[in-house]
Amino acid sequence: MHLPNGLRALNHRDYRLFFVGMLISLCGTWMQSVGQSWLIVRLTDSAFLLGLIATLQFLPTLLFALVGGALADRLPKRKALLFTQGMMMLLAFVLAALVLTGTVQYWHVAVLATLLGLTNTLDVPLRQAFTVEMVGGSKQDLANAVALNSAIFNGARLVGPAAAGLMIAKWGEGIAFLLNGISFVAVLVSLALMTAQGLPKPRPKRSLLADVAEGLRYTWDNPVIFFLIAMLLAVGLFVINYSVLVPILANNVLNIGAAGYGYLMSALGAGALVGALILAFRSRSGPNLKPLITAGLVLCAAAAAMYFAHSFWVAMIILFVMGWSQILYTADTNTTIQILSPDDMRGRLMSLYQLVFAGSTPFGSLITGAVIERSNGSTGFLVDGALGLFFALLLLLWWVRRGGRVRALA
Predict the structure, then answer these.
(1) CA distance 378 to 307
(2) Which residues are CB-contacts of 280 (< 8 A; sequence separation ≥ 6)?
(3) CA–CA separation, 395 and 390 (whole Å)
(4) Neighbour count for residue 250 (Cβ, 10 Å)
(5) CA 24 to chain centre
């Protein structure tokens, strides 16, 4: 099979299986994300409690991501992914049963969100580190696979939230959770059919904590990776809090209901899908920080601009820009770190990426929820965007003054 350059990762059979399985599964994941946020709004009508759920879901990442990355470098990745994906399917079915039987309570969602977050601390670095093996070890095809991963993630974000919003408006949240559980069958089948095993590289016998420390030392000693991680922290902490910001904006500011909320989330997905396709078909000779940094600054500025979005269509346009700029920023950051990572340390470095990107969400969600509790969704966007822009510019100034380059890296 010889596909166009922008789809070259799909020339690899194992990656094709992964691509199809994850596309189906991620549609369900986005349906559950929308359903869970709307369920909490319906049960509590509290921005703070909604933010607390996001905090609980991502708190395990904050606590255990580095350990998860060290384990990912030690475990046979295909078998471990069968376990983590199976666990997530089980959690989705439990939540569906609670909602469909009318017995769900806030604490049920809190416990299940925490367990899902705990599973993700191992699942995410496993998937990230396994990608290079699914494309036969090619670094060029790895960059394309990361872009295509972003495309399917955000293609699912385009379809899942809109479908969930319509389903929730007609049948309630339980159907979204049920379909998410069923969608995991696709990725489990794709993993079962793969030939790549993702076996760990030979390594000296040492403790898990020693492996974690080695990954942290490598990051500290590599100025490019350190800068990327620091900037990701600023943007992730203050700007990427959609699970708190968007449902409150839809419900309390725009008054557009569950279906409108689904469309807003789909606007984010549409922008991100466009950005991911640009990345996939873009000619790339090596890591380049200039478009990455530009996209991060645009994302922060667009978030602040949402303060002025008092109509549905203006909000849709700005969210499209936010989705587009976020994927250009985060996928480029992800790819650059993966390309610069040694093969036997990729799981640990990608767990650090996950820690900073997703692990900052507990704090960001609480900050955002507290701001909105005392104002509204529009003010939350303004405060988050302004803070993200301030710290991103501060880091950029530090990077340039120490002689860091923003163009192609050696």
Answers:
(1) 4
(2) 6, 7, 144, 147, 148, 151
(3) 9
(4) 27
(5) 16
Q: For residue 146, what are the β-bridge partners?
A: none
Q: What is the pLDDT along the chain (410 residues), one digit of tens a residue?
A: 566 667 878 888 888 999 999 889 988 888 888 888 888 888 887 877 887 887 788 788 878 888 888 888 888 899 999 999 999 999 999 999 999 998 989 999 999 999 999 999 899 888 888 888 888 766 677 778 877 887 787 677 667 777 888 888 888 888 989 999 999 999 999 999 998 887 777 666 777 788 888 888 888 888 888 889 988 988 888 887 776 778 777 777 788 877 788 788 778 878 887 887 787 776 555 567 888 889 999 999 998 888 888 888 988 899 999 989 988 888 888 888 877 877 777 778 888 887 887 767 667 767 777 776 666 667 777 888 888 899 889 988 888 877 665 544 43
CA distance readout (Å), 142 to 5, 146, 222: 13, 6, 21
Q: Euclidean distance between the first and final Cα of the chain, in Å?
A: 33
Is residue 70 within 8 Å of 351, Cβ to Cβ?
Answer: yes
Nearest CA among 304, 334, 346 for reference residue 322 = 304
CA distance 296 to 275: 13
Token pair of 298 as six digits: 């645009």
Instruction: Output the six-digit token pair for 210.
Output: 């020693």
Using only C-alpha atoms, the chain has a radius of gyration, in whole angstroms, of: 20
Give the amino acid at 17: L
Instruction: For residue 75, give the nearest of 83, 65, 64 by alpha carbon.
Output: 83
Distances (CA, A) of 335 to 143, 225, 292: 6, 11, 11
